[in-house]
Design a protein that fits this description.
The protein is α/β, with parallel strands linked by helices. The chain has 10 helices and 13 strands. It has a single domain, classed as Spore Coat Polysaccharide Biosynthesis Protein SpsA, Chain A (Alpha-Beta Complex). A hairpin with a 2-residue loop joins strand 2 and strand 3. Helix 5 crosses helix 9. It binds uridine 5'-triphosphate.
Length: about 280
């Protein structure tokens, strides 16, 4: 199964505290905040299903139990609304539950995204997998970002793929930033990557967003990665080790991305999806 071209598993690190959304995230996980009527995490799971994945692995933490309840049948609710005009409200989530399986593990200490991904190893095993950060909400008229990345991976199965977008230079201190050599249209071979660099030190304005395809080798690399920026174990630092071996590609995706981890991005996404639903765009 190692380095097989077909990606079936998707990991969702969802253990973070979501401090930028306090007090809303005191008792509600950030990943469960809804854009219109759907929680962020459900958008992410639907994107993974569209990209051909059927096994959802979710890294949770304390106070995140509503995630498990969401991706499960609520018999009482089903009973109450069966045969009524409201039944259609559950159509999408029922379809999600029927099309894939969910498994969970807890990150006991929030030691960063790299550490959260390592925590998920027990659910992933020894095979390539996707990672979705549900607070980066993506939309596309044609193929989803993850579908585009799966296609890139199929051509480069020895590499990790990270999704990137061009950002204003003054925002580099919010992202992992790459530099690399353009090898195909929209595809770079990464030779450097830095977590949240000051704009003056950033190697480019190409920022990593919350979509990755990772080869299983990443787990042993994370194990030896020391805490970096903010004292956290950073996935960017682990990926740099693989980039030095020529094993990381950065893909400039087609589509829109909203940073729903920030209030501004969340409001922008809500307006966008509302207009989309009302047929205004
Ligand atoms: P963020 O830094 O955006 O999430 O991490 P956060 O820490 O929850 O948010 P703020 O900054 O306090 O508002 C990106 C993703 O990585 C997960 C988060 O849940 C989020 O999906 N994460 C981060 C973990 O699962 N574990 C961690 O230790 C850190």
């Amino acid at each position: 199964m190692k380095n097989s071209k077909s990606i079936k598993k998707c990991l969702f690190p969802a253990a973070g505290y979501g401090t930028r959304f306090l007090p809303a995230t005191k008792a509600i996980p950030k990943e469960m905040l809804p854009v219109l009527t759907k929680p962020l995490l459900q958008y992410g799971v639907e994107e993974a299903i569209e990209a051909g994945m059927d096994t959802m692995a979710i890294v949770t933490g304390r106070g995140k139990r509503s995630i498990e309840d969401h991706f499960d049948v609520s018999y009482e609710l089903e009973h109450q609304i069966k045969g009524t005009a409201k039944e259609h409200y559950l159509t999408e989530i029922r379809s999600v539950i029927n099309r894939c399986t969910f498994s969970y593990t807890r990150q006991v200490e929030m030691k960063g995204l790299g550490h959260a991904i390592l925590t998920g190893q027990t659910l992933i095993g020894d095979e390539p997998f996707a990672v979705v950060l549900a607070d980066d909400l993506c939309d596309n008229d044609e193929k989803s970002v993850l579908t585009q990345m799966v296609e890139v991976y199929a051509k480069h199965p020895e590499c990790c793929i990270v999704a990137i977008e061009e950002i204003p230079q003054e925002h580099t201190n919010k992202y992992g930033v790459i530099s690399g050599e353009l090898i195909e249209e929209n595809l770079y071979k990464v030779n450097d990557m830095v977590e949240k660099p000051d704009p003056k030190d950033a190697p480019s304005n190409l920022a990593i967003i919350g979509r990755y395809i990772l080869i299983p080798e990443i787990f042993e690399v994370i194990e030896t990665t020391k805490p970096g920026k903010g004292g956290e174990i950073q996935i960017t630092d682990a990926l740099l080790t693989l980039a030095k071996e020529g094993k990381v590609l950065a893909y400039k995706f087609k589509g829109k991305r909203f940073d729903c981890g920030s209030v501004d991005g969340f409001v922008e996404a809500t307006n966008y999806f509302y207009d989309l639903e009302k047929g205004k765009i």
